[in-house]
Hints:
Blueprint: E1 2-11, E2 16-21, E3 35-39, E4 42-46, E5 48-54, E6 58-63, H1 69-75, E7 79-82, E8 97-100, E9 106-116, E10 119-125, E11 131-135, E12 141-145, E13 150-153
Parallel strand pairs: 8-13
Antiparallel strand pairs: 1-2, 1-7, 2-6, 3-4, 5-6, 8-9, 9-10, 10-11, 12-13
Amino acid sequence: MLRIAQVLKSNGTEGELLVSFFDIGPEDIDLQEPVFIYFDGLPVPFYFESFRRRGTGRALVRLTGVRSLRDADELAGRALWADYFQEEEEEDLTGWTVISAATGEAVGTLAGYEDIPGNTCIWVERPGGEQVLLPFHEDLLVCMNEEQRSLTLTIPEGLL
């Protein structure tokens, strides 16, 4: 799925939301298709009940099941995802050096991927052949250097 927007805040008391779109414009949204919001690592589908553009990259929307200020406030800050956009093919990063953001030192080489639903992970081969499984999420990616073929990651404490 492709992350298409972020819920900025609630608007009014009837569950309306102000959303900001990422690399797409509001005109590219298929209002007949669901968008997904993750709860406890699982995508929950929502359909648009209303959609009013606000400028070039924002819209006021009503989603199914969101009927009150309380419901809308619960969604504030969450991302909207869609599965009907053609995503670019992801680059294979196998063989790239993985660097710890905390120490600035190489921790190993990316050896493969483990696609756990809602939690993509990478296998990192450490010196000596030991492999460790690390979470691979955009929030943990600090830097991606194509010239040096390296990824700098914030690695949660205790995983190495």
